[in-house]
User: Which sequence fits this backbone?
């Protein structure tokens, strides 16, 4: 029979470690909301439902103290870090996934790969989005066309035992780089080291200097530690 000492003092009992339902310990985010409006960040923001993970991220990435934020998900703690880039382990080519999605209030209305629809009820049908890249972006902006949905699963190279994290982006600039990233991961065909970065891009628009933050996946090469020889997906 196991120890029952906490039956007499339940408040002192160790709290169960929380995990995401899909075995993730947290998410890296490149933005947040101010008064209900999205705003981009130049340093990574990490959310988790596990207080130990949130504290570890704060220590590792020189972040602020973990704090609660309003969310309907399990990752109710957020950490604003001081890191614009982190070295990660991508456990195989299948850890990077991409699709185009037209979102509605209740979820996805349409999914495609840019040529054909991929949802089960419409699989194989021609994509309804414009063919041109610029026209696609404009349709997505108007809410009539699909927008990118890129997801990366990874571990932190400095502390892989912390668990698996997720980054999701709708960045069109990331889409431009995606083919090269996929080719490099396919060539390695196994665990790979990479930098996950936020880069500030400046440009002129009508005589005004503007900028935006661009997520970047920069593949370094194979992970030779031998710890993750089997892709998890």
Assistant:
């Amino acid at each position: 029979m196991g120890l029952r000492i906490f039956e007499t003092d339940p408040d002192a009992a160790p709290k169960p470690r929380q995990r995401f339902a899909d075995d993730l310990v947290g998410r890296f985010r490149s933005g947040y909301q101010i008064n209900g409006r999205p705003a981009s960040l130049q340093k990574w923001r990490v959310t988790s439902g596990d207080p130990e993970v949130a504290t570890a991220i704060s220590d590792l990435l020189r972040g602020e103290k973990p704090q609660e934020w309003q969310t309907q998900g399990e990752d109710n703690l957020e950490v604003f870090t001081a890191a614009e880039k982190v070295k990660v382990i991508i456990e195989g080519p299948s850890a990077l996934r991409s699709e185009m999605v037209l979102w509605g209030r209740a979820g996805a209305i349409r999914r495609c790969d840019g040529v054909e629809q991929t949802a089960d009820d419409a699989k194989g049908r021609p994509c309804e989005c414009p063919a041109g890249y610029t026209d696609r972006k404009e349709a997505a902006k108007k809410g009539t066309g699909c927008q990118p949905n890129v997801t990366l699963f990874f571990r932190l190279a400095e502390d892989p035992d912390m668990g698996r994290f997720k980054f999701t982006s709708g960045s069109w600039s990331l889409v431009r780089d995606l083919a090269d990233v996929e080719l490099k991961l396919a060539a390695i065909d196994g665990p790979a080291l990479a930098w996950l970065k936020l880069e500030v891009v400046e440009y002129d628009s009508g005589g005004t200097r503007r900028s935006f933050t661009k997520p970047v996946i920069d593949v370094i090469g194979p992970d030779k530690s031998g710890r993750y020889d089997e892709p998890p997906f």
Remarks:
- Residues 194 and 219 are 4 Å apart (CA to CA).
